[in-house]
Amino acid sequence: MKSIYLTGFMGSGKTTIGKQLSSKLHLPVMDTDEEISRKEGLSVRTLFEKYGEDYFRSLETSILKTIPKEDMIVTTGGGMVVREENRKWMLQNGIVFYLQCEFDKLWSRLEKDETRPLVLNQQKEAVKKIYISRQELYKEGSIVIHTTNQSVDEVVDEIVSRVKK
Ligand code: S3P
């Protein structure tokens, strides 16, 4: 089976859903942020602070291409869709799901977070602008799963049924 890529804004539950999906489908899961941190020996926050966002985006593109294109669940950083090259790669090589969630719900999970450089010390409106600007990128070619009013189990079941179709 082609690999499954989970995309979505920060706080949309990609990591949690990816782990459950992994046990349901008996497939390994890889998280692009984790892989980058492990390879570079630095946290995502430190990578942003030391080298900037563009540098981080290049690391994302490289890591994406090293992940097997078959039989893998891939949970991606919320900005993976920003580069067209990454969107194309995921769509060509796998099944892409966008975990769509309303901004207010995401914000309630994000506002106190100190690990995400794009949220740290930012006002709600500034983060919302990024959210709005990315909507079309997330939707491009992907299967949209509406998660706002669904439990993790429900979201996982929906993905499983879409994959098995
Ligand atoms: C980012 C999302 C983060 C991480 C980095 C940038 C973004 O991943 O890759 O902080 O640009 O949306 P999560 O979506 O897992 O928080």
From TrEMBL:
<keyword id="KW-0028">Amino-acid biosynthesis</keyword>
<dbReference type="GO" id="GO:0016301">
    <property type="term" value="F:kinase activity"/>
</dbReference>
<keyword id="KW-0057">Aromatic amino acid biosynthesis</keyword>
<comment type="pathway">
    <text>Metabolic intermediate biosynthesis; chorismate biosynthesis; chorismate from D-erythrose 4-phosphate and phosphoenolpyruvate: step 5/7.</text>
</comment>
<dbReference type="InterPro" id="IPR031322">
    <property type="entry name" value="Shikimate/glucono_kinase"/>
</dbReference>
<protein>
    <recommendedName>
        <fullName>Shikimate kinase</fullName>
        <ecNumber>2.7.1.71</ecNumber>
    </recommendedName>
</protein>
<keyword id="KW-0547">Nucleotide-binding</keyword>
<feature type="binding site">
    <location>
        <position position="15"/>
    </location>
    <ligand>
        <name>Mg(2+)</name>
    </ligand>
</feature>
<dbReference type="InterPro" id="IPR027417">
    <property type="entry name" value="P-loop_NTPase"/>
</dbReference>
<dbReference type="InterPro" id="IPR000623">
    <property type="entry name" value="Shikimate_kinase/TSH1"/>
</dbReference>
<keyword id="KW-0479">Metal-binding</keyword>
<dbReference type="Pfam" id="PF01202">
    <property type="entry name" value="SKI"/>
</dbReference>
<feature type="binding site">
    <location>
        <position position="134"/>
    </location>
    <ligand>
        <name>substrate</name>
    </ligand>
</feature>
<keyword id="KW-0808">Transferase</keyword>
<feature type="binding site">
    <location>
        <position position="78"/>
    </location>
    <ligand>
        <name>substrate</name>
    </ligand>
</feature>
<feature type="binding site">
    <location>
        <position position="116"/>
    </location>
    <ligand>
        <name>ATP</name>
    </ligand>
</feature>
<comment type="subunit">
    <text>Monomer.</text>
</comment>
<keyword id="KW-0418">Kinase</keyword>
<feature type="binding site">
    <location>
        <position position="150"/>
    </location>
    <ligand>
        <name>ATP</name>
    </ligand>
</feature>
<keyword id="KW-0963">Cytoplasm</keyword>
<keyword id="KW-0067">ATP-binding</keyword>
<comment type="similarity">
    <text>Belongs to the shikimate kinase family.</text>
</comment>
<feature type="binding site">
    <location>
        <position position="33"/>
    </location>
    <ligand>
        <name>substrate</name>
    </ligand>
</feature>
<comment type="function">
    <text>Catalyzes the specific phosphorylation of the 3-hydroxyl group of shikimic acid using ATP as a cosubstrate.</text>
</comment>
<feature type="binding site">
    <location>
        <position position="57"/>
    </location>
    <ligand>
        <name>substrate</name>
    </ligand>
</feature>
<feature type="binding site">
    <location>
        <begin position="11"/>
        <end position="16"/>
    </location>
    <ligand>
        <name>ATP</name>
    </ligand>
</feature>
<keyword id="KW-0460">Magnesium</keyword>
